UniProtKB/TrEMBL annotation:
The keyword Hydrolase applies. This is Phosphohistidine phosphatase. Keywords: Hydrolase. It comes from Neomicrococcus aestuarii. InterPro entries: His_Pase_superF_clade-1, His_PPase_superfam.
Length: 173
């Protein structure tokens, strides 16, 4: 892959959530720790040049809250998130299909979702050119606020598997 990728993809697992009694899984809020740590994801995006121009976010409260906290660090560069109900219970194949619908004008896409889908999709996309240490770390553990950053040299509609260079896996806290 060239040193200047056509596109970048960030896959982010939501921040630490709470488990209040009587609250449905979809409506679970972030825990205090999640609220405190989520802005670190936004700071990582800015510091590493992965500021998204398009956001796809699961409709669950914890993913929407993670998005709000993380994008608060982006200032005027923060795009309006697109909340997609399909991402809430999507498996890796469905999440990839949703990513394939991304407009060609988008250069950096961030998707905020859930386990195990974020890890499964990241494993599916990681090409042989990927950073081996990051792949091994991501494959071993994908904790809350786990963030995988990819470089892609093809249109979103053609992204399929083993065709995205994983350049970084971090847990910004």
């Amino acid at each position: 892959m060239s040193s200047s990728p056509e596109r970048r993809l960030v896959i982010l697992r939501h921040a630490k959530s709470d488990y209040p009694l009587g609250v449905s899984d979809h409506d679970r809020p972030l825990a205090g720790r999640g609220n405190r740590e989520a802005p670190a994801a936004g700071r990582w995006l800015v510091e590493n040049g992965f500021v998204p121009d398009y956001l796809l976010v699961s409709s669950a409260l914890r993913t929407r809250s993670t998005c709000a906290w993380a994008t608060s660090e982006l200032g005027d560069e923060a795009p309006t998130p697109y909340i997609d109900d399909r991402l809430y219970e999507a498996g890796a194949t469905e999440m990839l299909s949703i990513i394939n619908e991304t407009p060609d004008t988008v250069r950096t896409l961030m998707v905020i979702g859930h386990m195990p889908t974020v890890q499964d999709l990241s494993m599916r996309l990681a090409s042989v050119e990927s950073d081996e240490e990051s792949v091994m770390e991501m494959a071993t553990r994908y904790p809350t606020l786990g963030l995988t950053a990819f470089e892609i040299n093809k249109p979103w509609a053609e992204l399929d598997g083993r065709d995205a260079k994983l350049v970084s896996f971090v847990v910004p806290r």
